Amino acid sequence: MGKRNSQRKNAAMFESDDDNSSVSSSSTTRSDRVPVLGTEEVQLDKDSLLEQALDALYEKRGSTREKALASIIEAFNSSLQHEFLEKKFATLLHQCLNSVKRGSSKEISLASHAIGLLALTVGPGDNAREILEESITPLSQAFKSVSDSLKISALLECLAIITFVGGNDSEETERSMQIMWQVVHPKLGSNVVASKPSAAVITAVVSAWSFLLTTMDGFSLNPKHWQESISYLSSLLDKDDRSVRIAAGEALALIFEIGSVEKFCGEAKSSNDGSIQGSKPREGFSHIQGLKGKIINQVKNLSAEAGGRGSAKKDLNSQRNLFRDILEFFEDGYCPEISVKIGGESLQTSSWSQLIQLNFLKRFLGGGFVKHMQENEFLHDVFGFTPKKKHLLDDEHRISSAEKRMYRSPNSVLNKARTQLLNKQRMLSEGRNAGHFAVNVGDEEV
């Protein structure tokens, strides 16, 4: 099919030039005027507002805690609260976790979002490790006790973000991916009777799972965890809900992009020692080719769908465009190219991994996306993006975006060498944390 002109340079514009900071300034003004406990509107500095909101998380009334969490989220969206977190990081984290454990559906959703923002704000390091270690059990338990789709989606996003920032190795990432997978795809033999997940929950699971898969390379995946996952995702392409089909399509493109496809499609047959007994190599290859042929046919149909399964024309066009890109990738190996304008600089992606990371973080940050992309150094590293102001300051010290992307790509020679070195260091130190965000977030190649 040849490389289409539509290799699509997406015209998404997120303008927030230096002389036009309407996104952050309007939010800040509104935040500064929202009292959490009082009834009078009083101009408060940001730290005072956050202190007041933090105090409100101790209140017995759930609606008061919900208002406080909403104020905290707004404050973290409008400004990176580093000074506040230097003093109150642990307190805020544990109060948010208390809300996850005891709160209403709305409170759990708000608290989950706040924890994710907390992780993105502190960036990789000891604090991000603490967020992941302290949150993993409460989040896992919350999945078992809730059924509301909005609440489950918020928990999934939170788990994805805190693992993305705070995870140190592939085992930790796969642990979170397994927790997600169990929400819609419980293990055989489980005593838990799972209710049929809604389309919204399936979409949220596949999106969060794919987001974490972008940080992995095919070599580090444990095949016993993901047998038949390609078949499952292929079945989702036939579902009536368009969001489910789109999420599944992106996940399948990503799986084929990162390689080691056999780890996702074999039939799991465990031996007595727990290892996976795969089929013969030739049979395995034929199985993979058969699956890929089936998926290509499904993708062709979805790229030319006339409508009927979903009403909005805009959504239908988005689906057609996406599946045309997926089809081109399967047939010719080309990935979609996206360019997003942020404050006068272009953020560009050229792989499925990058595109999935960008879309996930845009959805999670919402109105705070521009602010974080301009000021959050962790996200600068993730995307190899240098905002306009930083360009002027860093010209002498900056490596190119292409070099950064090459270094971070899980498929790059540099990154594989780095991964091997870090694995060796972990073995020598017997699991002792070396203090920097080793393999997994270093792998967050976009």
From TrEMBL:
Boundaries of every Interferon-related developmental regulator C-terminal domain copy: 376-429
Domain Interferon-related developmental regulator N-terminal: 22-331
Superkingdom assignment: Eukaryota
Region entry Disordered, spans: 1-38
Pfam families, alphabetized: IFRD, IFRD_C
InterPro entries reported in the protein's UniProt record: ARM-like (IPR011989), ARM-type_fold (IPR016024), IFRD (IPR039777), Interferon-rel_develop_reg_C (IPR006921), Interferon-rel_develop_reg_N (IPR007701)
Family designation: Belongs to the IFRD family.
PANTHER family: INTERFERON-RELATED DEVELOPMENTAL REGULATOR, INTERFERON-RELATED DEVELOPMENTAL REGULATOR 1
Name by which UniProt lists this protein: Interferon-related developmental regulator 1-like
Provenance organism: Juglans regia (English walnut)
